[in-house]
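pasting for the record
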Amino acid sequence: MPSEAASTSKLSRALTAYSAARNDALVAARKELRISEVDARALLFVVDNPGVRPSALRDYLGITSAGVTSLVDRLVERGLARRESDAEDRRGNHITATVDLTTEPWSALTEFDRRFERAVETNLGAHSDELAALLIRLTEESVARSA
């Protein structure tokens, strides 16, 4: 019986290796900050979406409203994010990260991403958008077939 590795394509193995290397950079940062994987994913989402509403964070992470409230409380208590009241809706609030991804320990992750982007540009140039579109389609098809 052939091994699983033998039955996967070179592309699939390369994407798996990329994912593992990026995850290693994230794990190193997460361990340094002593936060969970979900908290780290949430924090990265908040960094990419300053002023995000908790409901958007909830939807992104696929957790309950109570879960996102606890998560945001943890991030705020640790000084990793701040909660700001919505000026137009007193019941609502916005979450903004207070961490700088260019400083340790997050810089390990951002430096990995920066080096990867430079390598993509050097090796693919204008074709990087085409490859990205292809990878998105392949991922969507794979997810759709497994559902």
